[in-house]
Specification:
- Helices cover 41% and strands 18% of the residues.
- With 324 residues, the chain is an alpha/beta fold.
- Strand 10 and strand 11 form a beta hairpin.
- The longest helix has 17 residues.
Length: 324
Amino acid sequence: MRRTYAFNGDADGLCALQQLRLAEPEATGTQVTLVTGVKRDIALLDRVKASTGDACTVLDVSLDVNRAGLLALLEAGASVRYFDHHFAGEIPRHDKLDAHIDPSPNVCTSVLVDRYLDGRFRRWAVVGAFGDSLVEDARALAQMVGLSPEDTQRLKELGVAINYNDYGETIADLHVPPAELAGEMLPFVDPLDFAAKSATFRRLAEGFRQDMELARQLEPMRRTAGAIVFLLPDAAWARRASGTLANDMAKAHAGNAIAIVSHKTSGGYLVSIRVPKESAVSAEFFCRRFPTGGGRRTAAGINDLPSTELGRFADSFEEQFRAG
């Protein structure tokens, strides 16, 4: 039998994967394939090859984006489990599809897997929730398993560092490819042990610190009450820092919608957007106005904004989210 895991390479996807692989060790002879990429590389199921008797688990990527690939796998006779919290659209009804999808704003994929496993590896769910910026929900999970404030802070640092690693335009932008990071995490039942023993974690944490020192020196490209736009320089550190910077700026400028615009090496821009929970318009709704946009209510993005569209995008962003 072939078993494929198709997962977002950020903290949420990796920690969801970690919980399932700890709970379901591969039997001898099982051929395991990991399909993943940088955070915005979410059309993963087109790359999965499977047939009757094979199993595929999908983690933290939109069903709507992967609909054609999912239907092809089901038609080929593969069984599919799907855990996700992004916009899904209509969920297909099929006896070989086991879907666990919840787009609620206080849920991430690691939390959905934690529920599925009745909390067996909840510490990894804590890491995933912190990495996905669900800080209060992560702290609540940490309290459920009796973590001290110091250990909770350590898992927050781990989640942020793992999540930051996956922001980049290509695998070459990343400090560690996510499939390689998944392999390094797998032997560790307790993420605190991974944080204490992993040289990779120390490398990620130091790289994160250096990148964010550069990022926090940036000034907004455009700023109005309720909407702030940052344009990052054309550099690998900036492509890595974009998503985390969006989260940090959303906290630093609470009540404002934040747009982080990054140069792509192929031309055009990658956009990360964060909006307040109380915003009348969701980040996902706004981004879906653009051909490559999507995401969640408070965090979304545009994968390919043409250079000629930057001015129009900034105008639309300000018009939509300007206070009052």
